[in-house]
TrEMBL record:
This is Cytochrome P450. SUPFAM superfamilies: Cytochrome P450. It comes from the Eukaryota. Belongs to the cytochrome P450 family.
Amino acid sequence: MLPSLFVHLHHIYEWSTQMIIDCGGTLDVKTPWIGHMFSLFTIDPKNIEYIVKTKFANFPRGAYFNSVSADLLGHGILNVDGQEWVEARKMMSSVFHSQAFKNHFIHTLDELMKCRLMPAAEAACESGLTVDLQRLLVRFTFEHICVLGFGCETHDFESGEMDEIAKALEEAEEATLRRFTVPSTVWKAARMLGVGWEAKLTKSLHVIREFVDAIVSLRRKEMAAGGGALPRRHDLLSKLMQMERNTSTDKELRDTCISAVLAGKDTSLKRRFCRLGGV
């Protein structure tokens, strides 16, 4: 198992998925080289429903997952358990199910399609170049999630800064995933020494945090100027900041929004590919 893991590390998603399929949809792995940890991987819809819905409380992320993911996810909804998760879910759910947010979703989706996606597709058609559709939709989804999560404007994506943010998020996800493939002592030592993918993770996290912290600071100033309200903003961050019961610090707001963006960009992309394929 261990030798194969390192051989296929460059395409770990495809390799691990195929391995699970070959095992009938569920694979259990014992890894004595990571503190005698036992892992269970499944792509069976019934198992997934049981874990994330039917008996969700029986499957906490636990201390190990929390420690590995803490640098990227912080104290966001993807990295907390129990009552903390329940409270975080309630707050985010109230935003996502509000009519204002739904209208904002549709309006910004339409605007981005007209201003960003269609011009890019038309330019490719006129030039006669082959289009990497997946890459195009990945970028489009990232931009839409940033609009919904942080309140970014369409013109923000014309600068090179957003390219840097997109790259940083991708590299941070990849580096965090790699932590699960080695003993904790290995990645912690690499982080302390600033080498390998841990060095890349540290750099990516700095870019991400600096970007989000600047937006949170800007929203604080806008709220102060508007008497504690942001009537023209309907993004997740702005809505969370305006909740009376929300006493989150700037760091907690940052963690929440980063978790939401990471969770949303992949699921939204999958849905768009399914619709494109007529599924």
